[in-house]
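U., I forgot to send this yesterday:
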Amino acid sequence: MKKSIIPLILGQIVLDTIIKTNTENQRLDGYEIKNNDTTVGGPPFFSAVVGFFLSQLFPWMELPLIYAYTSSKVNSLLEANSIAGLLTNNLKMRSTCPHFQLIYNPNEKERTLFLENPPLKFDPNDFDWKSDSFPVAIVGSVFHEFNDYNIFSFLQKKFSYIAFDPQGCFRQLSQGGEIILSEWMNPEILERIDCLKLSEIEARYLNLGNDNKTIIKNILDTSISTVLLTQGEKGAILGVSESEKKKKITYKIPAYTSNVIDETGAGDVFLFSFATHFCAHSNVLDAAAFSTSVTSLLIEQNRFSLHFTEKMIKDRQQIIRSQIREIHS
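Result:
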């Protein structure tokens, strides 16, 4: 019998100004603005919206719970887009909320990120936990708010499975407010999670090796059982520790060829879909194929007019699953 999973998502719902540029200019200086759109983002936002659709399609997934920080301005945007109801499980209002400015050229896929008013550290005691334990937590970092092992010590007592995207831990601010990547490594955090998701670029800043397989092996030497190393349009690499850490296997997860409209939030949805599916079915390769399928559908659509069907997801999942291969060299 398949388990019914209530995924819980922790993070910040942030305000973003997205500036799309024309295709001729490739530098920030002199950009001609083609479209300027203010919206909301952050791991809880993207995962909750997609999680709502998935919970309508698959009986093993229930509507996700959100424990997140936000602001009144962000909440007004949510209400204006008729999706506030998805995100009112357990929100804590703050006078300010992280405000990103994302500048990108859709055709060239160039993305430059700026950040105003960085968030404070996440404090689990701010929230009214509705149960003593949950099956799965998906933790998404925006900017250092989860860079503390005490937070994960608390979460270990509540969750049987913790998936973490540490992207915010790698982020630093330049003097001009631009997001740049820097080294990050916190073994005390890694010892307290089950699944780590990071990009191929971020992985280099762990200082655990110079190639993907070495980095994944070194991560799996901790208590982490699963590593998801995303590679954009090339797909992902999956690292798995099996048989009580005595066997470590890496797999190549292919991308599903998509007509990309907007990649924003793809990593958040990828981790959310993977962790929830894995906790329901306990098959790591099926979960990787499922999350790749869901993410491919996400990046083809406008965020406020999403459309998913069970057949669309399962058809792509089956194709992707048939193409997953173990990496031997």
